[in-house]
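Fold in tokens:
===
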Amino acid sequence: MIAALQEHNYYGLNIDFEYIFPFDRESYNQFLRRVVDTLHPLGYIVTTAVAPKISDQQTGLLYTAHDYRAHGETVDQVIIMTYEWGYTYGPPMAVAPIDQVRRVLDYAVTVIPPGKIMMGMPNYGYDWTLPFVQGSAASVLTNTGAVTLASNVGAEIRYDTTAQAPFFNY
């Protein structure tokens, strides 16, 4: 890591490990401490990216091993991936519905110093075939790609006030 940071003149390191087994939670925390203890004296910052949790008791392969409190105590910034409620193989919905994002941030500020929190924001959407069939995959769209698609098919872009997200059907 140090050689890559130096060779490319990077400012710091972001660690984004997902699908960590729950029994490796403390090992992951110890790994983060070792990275910080190694890189800080060399002048580098360390950030982590974590799955969106609403409590420390939230279980699942994406959540259990991400110890928000330990990350907040250890690293310089914690990037919370507040997106992917709507995802490639899931049913159609907003990628980052504001009510869900708010729940995550409401929890995060109770265990991570607020000045260390960075909120990930999606810059994409999905094109689902309707009616949705479990196991089917949506296509990823850029923001401009979505607008272009809506224009090309003559769809009206509407706005979901609950999710605070645009959408269209065609």
About this structure: The radius of gyration is 19 Å.
